[in-house]
Design goal:
Low-confidence stretches: 1-25, 459-463
Mean pLDDT: 86
Strand content: 5-15%
Strand order of the largest sheet: 1-2-3-4
Structural class: alpha/beta
Helix content: 40-55%
Amino acid sequence: MTWRRWGVAVAAAALAWGAATGTAAAQPSQAEALAAALRTDPVYLTDQLPREVPRSTAPAFAAAARRTGVPTFVLVLPQQSWDGLLGTVHDRLGRDGLYVLVGPNGVESARTFGVSAPATDASDIALYSLPYDAGALRSFQAFTDAVASGPQRAATRADQLRAEYGNTGKDVAPFYIDRTDRQNQGFLTGVLLTSVPLSVLLIGLYVRRKRSRTGLRLPESAAAAALAATVLLGAPQVFDQKVDGPQQAPTQADLTTRLDRVAAGLQHAAVYSDPESPQVLDASQQAELARRIAAYTPGPVKIAVVPQLSDDESAGDQSVFAAGLHRRLHQKGIYVIADPLRGDVHVYDFGIPVDAARLTLDLPMSLAYDHDDNPAVDHRLGQRLDQLMTYLGTVPHSDPAPDGPDDPPEPVAGHRLPPLFHGDFWPGLFMGALAAGLLLGITAAVTGAAGAFARGRRRAAKGQEAPAHPTAGWLSRTAGSEVKALAEEVAAAQDDAPGRERAWECLDAAMLLTGGPGRHDGPQPGPADLAAATVLARAGRAALAGRTYRTLCAVNPLHGPAVDGAHACAACRPGRGSAALDARRLTLPGPRGSGRVPYEKAPGPLPAARDGISRLVATTKEYASVR
């Protein structure tokens, strides 16, 4: 049987049923029509989903069905309410076996009648083991593989999948990306292609100029070229998806079978009700519609009660479907497309002398849609189509209009994704260049801030320097800055701040030696007094910071505290050797260029530093009172 002949088999079943019952107007129920189709072939694919499940994939469904090991009857139908359908089809067919109902997205229901097969477990395996974009055929193949594995294995696998995916909200990662994802991939590739190598070039040039070097060198240029080549060659390997879905492209026969079937049904009748859909018109309603259509004088009326789906041959466009019927019937008339699943009604005029706008643009909403708060299961199509015939009688006559809409069917887009270097790839190149400029700006800002911070740290560290042989200028600057800093910190400290008493003692003693921060009048302190003031100021600041110490490094008091149990700091610990310690010992400029003097022999209180801070404070006060 050819696909085209198979496409009209269900319609022929309706006529056969009427002949068998002796009632010409009789219409088989949905279950009766589907059972008649399964008698012809145990695998029935609807002709209403050519863009999603083409009928040309029927051999693949049949091959999968044979793997179950039991008689298997398969129905692939559009999405609808399927409650009890499999049981009713079995009753009409009268054959035991595994009955499977497959929708556009996969296995929807499965039941066994008189055979043993893990239908429920296999359904759950098909549901949970595949992503939502696996497609109807792959879902059915997973189902039949589970059935063929046997009840025990199917049960174990189903329990594992239910525990992992059943109520956890976790989903299997999709198999495919869509065209929006490909555009995003192209955009990202464009961004990387310009931003990465350009950033290397710009930042390399910036660094060289910061170091007083001019121009780019070969390493930066080679690295940029290598990165650009890596993106160009690597992106197609990473983004290697070629198609956006599992569907097989429909053949021309897939796209015309349903139109041929409906046109054949309307060739000698005014009303055609899709046999594989729920029947929303009973025999009496169809007879009444036929009577009223026969009495309509402006011209023929054709009513097709057929679902309009986004995956059908017309991509869900009722006007395209109506135009296709008109082309096949070669008959002027008013064509009515009524959807038994949604209840929508659309009317198109092909050459009848009536006001066509009243049929399309001005069709009352109550006739076009079932708007009740509680819509009926049959969408009241029988009543509304009867009212439509009444409305047609009120539409005024006019000159014959053109033959109505004749839009060509929407092309079937292949499932091949567009190239990676296409579409949003080009804006990505521009955005990548902007990103490289932004990165350069951020780099400059960060390095500038880091440089300023480092310079501040160096300045702060420089304030804590303790050279072994300081100059008179260094001693003057350091003593002034340290005493000033201690004075400010003491003034800002709370009265009960820890270490504040020690800090006051150190500040008082240091000011006795220097006369206070910023002093310029009177005799200037000598190098030894400046060194002692620096040692006192640093000890006071350390006390305010919670690091109070009593003993000082005997090698160089400017080093700060001595290690516990020793008379030197960690850097001047015993065991370094006398020569090394002599090199680190503090010396001061002598009077009038007479050479350097060890601090222990310097005039003033500084030699008392060997006995600790307290002794240095006391000696300073005695020294100041005598001076």
